[in-house]
Amino acid sequence: MLDEPEPVQPLTVRRLEIENFRGVRKGVVEFEGHTLLVGGNNAGKSTICDALELVLGPERSYRRPIVNEHDFHAGRYLDEDGNPVYIRIDVVLLNLPEEMENKLFSKTRPWSKVKGEFVDENGAEPEDADGEDVVRALPLTFIGYYDRKEDDFVGTTYFAHPVKELGEEDEHYGKPFAGLLGFPREWKIQCGFIYLRTLRTGRRALSLERGSLLDTILRLGDTGKESMWESTLRQLRDLDPPIGDIPQLEEIQTQIKNRMARFVGLSADKDATGFYASDLTRENLREVVRLFLKSQDSNHTVPFNRLGTGAVNALVFALLTHIADLRGNRAIIFAMEEPEIALPPHAQRRITKYLLKNMGQAIITSHSPYVIEEFDMTNVRAISRREGVLSSDCIPAGVIRHSSLRTNRRQLAEAILARGVIVAEGDTEAKMLAAASYMYEALDKSNTYVPLDLIGVSVFDAGSQSQVPKWGPFFGALKKTTFAFHDMPENAWTEDQSEKLDTYHYNFESAYKGTEDLLAAEVPPAVHRRFLDQAKEHPDYPTDKGYLKGGESDDDVIALSKEVLKAKKGSGFAAMLIEQCETLDEMPETVKSFLETVAADMALPKLADTDGDAGDDAGDGEDGPDDPDPLDIDIADIL
Fold this sequence. Notes:
Mean pLDDT: 84
Shape: globular
Strand content: 15-25%
Oligomer: single chain
Number of helices: 22
Number of strands: 19
């Protein structure tokens, strides 16, 4: 039986390098097929999408100017000597369609999929390009700068290879684009890059302006769009009856004609003045034409932007599916910001599934666990930025088995959105810590303690004590502040486990062999009595352990409570016991101390009140030089 041919891989972005663009002084992002970008607000996620659009977006060149002062890092577009500072964005494309690769072969370079780099650099041997993993890659570069001669900002996408040798007499000699050929719009269209800014869909995305979704559909359909504009303009000009026939407007036209005739010669024709629905130009029609819709159970049509935000976003997505169908086997590189905006969870999942199935490459930014859980964790990139340097961190290969990632999808999605992660050894500990944080806040009369959810800390259930070490490197790679919470092990940690535990920001090891021992030793008997009285009504109460009958000693009460906790380990009974505490003194000291440590390490910046005093959220948060506002924190920080 003949082997089936390998499926053709879609055209994809493999690497993006940025210099001096927006808040990014420099940075590199590696893409492996579909990619999910996660990170705090102002980390640089939208900047990445905007950078891709500058290089690949066929309609971006219509914007004038294509870049402006605020697109340069720190607003610096001239150096101290008055020379231009350049925005440079480099993109590497892989899996070019056969026809595209054949026509652009001289513009491509050999790329090693294993090494993740070009193999024709200085010092390379000819045989380096013959490896089984070597493919042809197309390097492109966008250069933006301020042109003093034109007093304008300009920007162009170029083929980054080959570079033609220029003499010193050439006007572009020494400039970063010297010797490069432009990458024309026709080839950008072949790349199929579409960027949907979800927060900005609104008016423009569903208008007919250049680059809008409706314009893209018209362009891809290519069914007489030129004559469409001419026909529409003619109909507006010959509107019968004309707008000016409205009696009130006729009076105004007469007055204008009579009074203007005293100063300016007007035509004697009746239509020397008139009112029309637009400027009667293609560009003005693109701006003013509106899509009208009639919603379900309504008998009145309204402009699309008067519908609810969710309905508008759903409409936008419906048009995207049409665009995908129009392109057929011509793959789409599709970038989208926050598909969760104004959409319920099931719609978020449905949209994400559609994108991953139907787009050649989906590059998505999101804060939603419903979006995140649809991605393979190896395709997640944690974006961060410090002092202008953009970092894109992925999960190292082999750290966590794929089966573990799939099993923990929802937990992982929530942890990825968090500022910090507590890895608890099991379900009992995870639920207990969450309950203890809630109770600490409720019982703290000083109002100084800030609970885990308000400081953006997620509690992750590792499943067992032996699984705690491996999650340290995993979450560390995603730039999370990590805390381990586990019991004293029966056997000493192995060397590998110890090394992984050392990757935690704070590795807490209880002085007890189990959570039940901790609670029995540190929670007062009165709390255990209240717990047993409450637990006996629970349908999962282990009836074979017996009940309190009254008159038992404190030791007997604690012993029974411990037996019940062990029998129902993982059922939330430990959390139930914590919830019976009525004062902070009744809470277990070990758990309180751990929560206080986490709260101190993850504290948010102080907020000044109206009297100038610090707010409740004490902390030592740092504001990087690129942070526009010291109060600009991740949504996860406050939700």
